[in-house]
UniProtKB/TrEMBL annotation:
Protein name, entry field: Peptidase S41
GO biological process: proteolysis; signal transduction
Gene3D superfamilies associated with the record: 2-enoyl-CoA Hydratase, Chain A, domain 1, 2.30.42.10, 3.30.750.44
All copies of domain PDZ, residue ranges: 100-166
One function term, GO molecular function aspect: serine-type peptidase activity
Amino acid sequence: MSKKKKKLLSVIIIFGLFITSWIFADTVSNSYQKDSVTQIYLDKFEEPIYSTLYYIVNYYYGKENVDYDKIVDATIEGMMEGLDDPFAWYLDSVQTEESKIDIEGKYGGVGLTIRYDYEMDAVIIVSPMNGTPAQRAGLMPNDYILSVDGTPTSELGLSKSASLMRGEPGTEVTLEIYRDSWNEPKNITLIRETIETKTVKFDKLQYKNKNLGYILLTNFAKSSPQEMTEALNNLSNQEIEGIIIDLRNNPGGLLQSAVDITSMFLKSGEVVSVKYFDGTKETIPNIPGNYYSFLQNIPIVLLVNGGSASASEILTGALKDNDVATVIGETTYGKAAVQNTFTLSTGGEIWLPIAHYFTPSGSDIHLKGIKPDIEVSNPEREVISMTEITEEEATEAFYTTTEKPVINIEEDLQLKAALDFLTGGN
């Protein structure tokens, strides 16, 4: 697993896992056939892999304690790493569960954002989500989860702790919680509910006597087009004089969601073109009927940075190349790989690039990114502690289940530049 992927896997939200930058489409079969070409490679793999397994089973000193599921996962992950492609991944069964939640936008659980505190060797709560069982139970940022249903989180780790807290709505889960102000830990039993996260957050801003719409799009899930429709319906009734679409740190998502949402802002023209593994090409135009006419005569700004990737870059490239929006911020991530998922008997999935996409102008942005029209950088924040939960981080996590964005104009130079651009300021 790459260092970049490991870093992003170190922070997990119970409702999902944001995995680097991703976009995938159902374009090829999820089954395989042992044709003559494939058999050549199977023959090449069979002897060394089976021989290695034979020696482990028969000669390894610690053979009684071998976790063969772990060996299978490591073998598959090694095959993906052997491709030397940063976008060819293997997700084990737990990670696969996380990614599917990300795509669906809802799950059965208690509504917590968590991460792992390696100093305390326990899971720490970033924040409960608004309107969830965790919030109603009074759980707070910086509380520690010592065990889930009696199993210590130090043994489970982050991913398995998150997985164990999820389950069918209406079922119980007991968390052992420790808070600094308590003399001893307390067991708190929660009833799981359906937790629905919001990928689109919006608000109306008044800036220099103008009404401006602000839309934060966190990723491209199945629910994102409907959420964007609700946001635009709301803003269309408020005499908006300009729109900001914030794609910063948006890692991507579903290709179809990207096309659906782009078509809401693009009256006509090409959204993206795709070249597949077999040499075939596809040009994807805007979807007639998706466009919001109130946008026709108002300026649009896209905010991007190095974390804006994949589907975010499809939206950015389409609106930029079709002269619909001005792009402000920093050069985007640069991922034009379209991945397909293939389910394995382990319960995991391989994510394999099956195509590359190109922006409407024909630009290949892979590993290059999209340069903004106006370059603005936010100052890097000093990291005081890897475990400290900041107030801003906790607030953002709290609003995960709501349409409310967290906005701080004074400290956000990129957002301020966008507002000044839309109002003609300096």
